[in-house]
Design brief:
Phage tail protein beta-alpha-beta fold, 3-stranded mixed beta sheet, 13-stranded mixed beta sheet, flat, 39% helix, 3 domains, Jelly Rolls, alpha+beta, 9 helices
Length: 340
Amino acid sequence: MDNNSKHIDTLIARYIAGEASKKEKQELEQWMNSNESNKKYFEGIDFANDKAVSSHKIIKVEVDSAWEKVHQQMKTGRQNSPGKDAKTRTLIPNWAKVAAIALLITGLSVVLYQQANHAQVSVPGYALTSTDLIRNHTLTDSSTIILNRNSILIVADNYGKEERRLTLDGEALFEVTHNPEIPFIVESNETFIQVTGTSFNIQNFETDSLVEVYVKTGSVLFFSKGNEGIALVAGETGIYNKNTGIFTKTIQQNSNVTAYATRVFVFYNTPLHELFRQIQKVYNVEVVFDQSEIEHYTITVSFNNDNIDTILSIVSETLNLDYSFIDGQYHISNEAHSSE
C-alpha cells in the first residue's frame, strides 16, 4: 500500500472513531467525491465497522489485540516521559479506538480495492462486504460465494488448514468444493452450517427473526452450540427461530430463493404483488401499481437472467397492462385498456 493509501486509511479510521478534525473531515470528503470507487471504498469500510460493532463478535480478537497493543505502547511512553501520566491516560481510549478501527481497515482494504477492480483475492483473515451491489468471490479452495446486498462475510485467518470457517451476516449462496478432510463451516447468528461439498443458501439479516438455510445440492448439518439441530438434504429448507432457539425444516421448495444470485425466476399462479416483491429485491428497483386491483392479478411465468424492462414487458403483454418509468419508479397501469 502506498503512502497516500495509508494516509487515507488513517483519515477513515479517525473519522469513524469520531476523532477527525474539521480539516481532516474536509480532506476525506474531497477524496470521496473525487471518484465513485473512493466513495464505495469508504462505504464498505463504514458498513463493515457498523456490522462489527452491532454483532460484538466480528473481528473481536483483532480489535482486542489492537487495544492491548496501544495500551502497551502508551505504558512505554509513560515510562519514557515521566510527569505526563494524567495526560497520557486521557489519550488512551481515543488513540486505542482509532487503532482498533485502523486494524479493521487494514484487513479490509486489500479486498475492497480488489473488488472495485473486479479481481479475485485469496488472502487469509479478511472480510467481504456488499452494500448496494451483489458480489462474486472465489476462495483459496475454489469454493465460490455470491454475496447479496447489505451483507458481510468474514473469512478466518486459518481458512483451509484444519477447517474452512466463515462468518456471515446477511445472505449468500455457497458452492463448496468437495473435501471430506477439511470441513466447511459457516457461522451465522450463533448457528452453524457444516458441509464437505455442496451448494446452499443462507439468509440471516439483522432485522429478521429467522435464519434460513436452503440446500440446493448435497447435504448439510444445521445446528447451534446448545442444540444438535437438523440434517438437511437437497431441496429442503432449514429454519432457525432466533427468539425460541428452535430448528424446523420444510420440503416446500422456493425455486426463487437464489434468484438474487442467478436471476432465474419461476412463478406459478403468483399474484403480481408477490412477483414484484421478489423482482424488486433482486433488481433494486421500485414498482408501483397505479390501480390497487392490479396487485392481485395472477400470472404463471418464468424468467432467465432477463433485464427489468423485458420482465415488465412480458408481464404487461400477458395481462394486457401498460408500464412506464416516471421519476425513478416503474408504474404499472390498466387505465388505457379500461377506458377502451
